[in-house]
Write a structure and sequence with these properties.
The protein is 38% helix and 18% strand. It is an alpha+beta fold and 372 residues long. The chain binds fe (ii) ion (FE2) (2 copies).
Length: 372
């Protein structure tokens, strides 16, 4: 695919390159600051991994006239999904300066990066930086503990795009092509924050810092998931204010989660006994070792923990049954089995189940009870 087909302009001289994984990808961003006299400063944000390098090179060729013309590399934090090609980029771009928090640098300099190529964001006199060559303003906004102690975001005043790193990121729950968030994106954002953000109070503090930006951002550009713009910016920030994440979930929902784990194990046992082939498909998807997107912790043969909100976990499980079981009658049978088991444990189902129809022997249809 030509690089121009993979680059998406999301604001004035602000571009996104998305990696191609279907469920959880990386977004890499490029910004060209172009001054009135035609001078240009080139910035890349969270430049990805070795897997992304060839496409980053192609994008830099297209936008900057080559990797060697990168002036600024901004990294939101230290994770390898965004820092593991820094050594390659710094070698290829001799004048590029790496900007990050001092906390992030403490870890990323372990790649063997030279000290003289790094500038700590905390060392600037103010949070707002004027790019001398072109006159543009950018502002660094801390996202402390979201999810890393020294996480940073950067606001480009010209485009009104706020690059947020992992904050506001999500797994891909929106179906179909495109890069912009819809209502369908929320489930992925909620799941990602439930797992990765330590507690709601730090999420709120980060939202408060975003709220103080003047002018308020028009576009939120996270390192994972969809780009958020328009009313959804306010809408999703509002919902995040109320979302239990990390420790909140561990502390508040423990008994509920333990019950859910027991119920899901019972359901899986019934499924294994009655439909061993279907069980294998479902269980493999739920287990998926190494992927954080599974909300159930299954170290052996049983669920021992639920890592997200009970409702989110049930939605996920339901989605697995819907999407992984291709035979309609087996799917229906598994869904009925799940609903019946959850009912036995008095677990409220967070979605309508009236439309789950079973064909009885007479050939008509009956509707499984809803638990609303
Ligand atoms: Fe991260
Ligand atoms: Fe990330």
């Amino acid at each position: 695919m030509a690089i121009t087909d993979s680059l998406h302009q999301i604001g004035v001289e602000f571009y996104m390159l998305r990696s191609e994984e279907p469920e959880f990808h990386r977004n890499i961003y490029f910004k060209r600051f172009i001054g009135p006299d035609g001078s240009q400063v080139n910035m890349v944000m969270d430049p990805g991994t070795k897997l992304d390098l060839s496409r980053v090179i192609a994008a830099a060729n297209h936008l900057f006239g080559g990797l060697q013309n990168i002036d600024v590399i901004f990294v939101s934090h230290q994770d390898p999904d965004l820092t593991s090609n820094l050594d390659a980029l710094l070698s290829a771009a001799p004048r590029a300066l790496l900007l990050a928090s001092i906390d992030a640098w403490r870890l990323i300099h372990m790649y063997g990066l030279p000290d003289n190529r790094f500038k700590a964001i905390e060392d600037f006199r103010t949070d707002t930086l004027k790019i001398k060559k072109t006159g543009h303003l950018i502002k660094f906004v801390p996202a402390y503990y979201c999810h890393f102690r020294g996480a940073m975001m950067v606001y480009d005043f010209e485009s009104r795009v706020l690059f947020t790193g992992d904050f506001m990121g999500g797994t891909d729950t929106r179906k179909g092509p495109g890069i912009y968030a819809t209502e369908e994106s929320w489930a992925g954002i909620a799941l990602f924050h439930s797992i990765y953000m330590p507690t709601n109070s730090v999420v709120r503090a980060t939202i408060d810092r975003i709220g103080m930006l003047d002018p308020f951002p028009e576009v939120i550009a996270p390192q994972h998931g969809d780009v958020i713009k328009g009313d959804l910016v306010y809408d999703f920030l509002g919902r995040l204010m109320e979302l239990d994440v990390g420790l909140d979930l561990l502390e508040k929902k423990k008994p509920e989660k333990e019950t859910l784990a027991i119920a899901v194990n019972e359901f899986l046992e019934k499924l294994r006994a009655s439909h061993p082939d279907i069980f294998n498909i479902v269980f493999e998807k739920l287990k998926e070792p190494g992927k954080f997107t599974t909300p159930f912790y299954i170290p052996g043969d049983t669920v021992v923990d639920v890592k997200v909100d009970v409702e989110d976990a049930l939605r996920y499980l339901w989605d697995v049954l819907e999407t992984r079981i291709t035979d309609p009658s087996s799917r229906l049978s598994a869904q009925k089995m799940l609903v019946t088991t959850l009912k036995q444990y008095n677990i409220k189902i967070p979605f309508k189940v009236e439309d789950i129809v079973e064909k009885p022997e007479e050939g008509g249809s009956i509707i499984i009870d809803s638990f609303e």
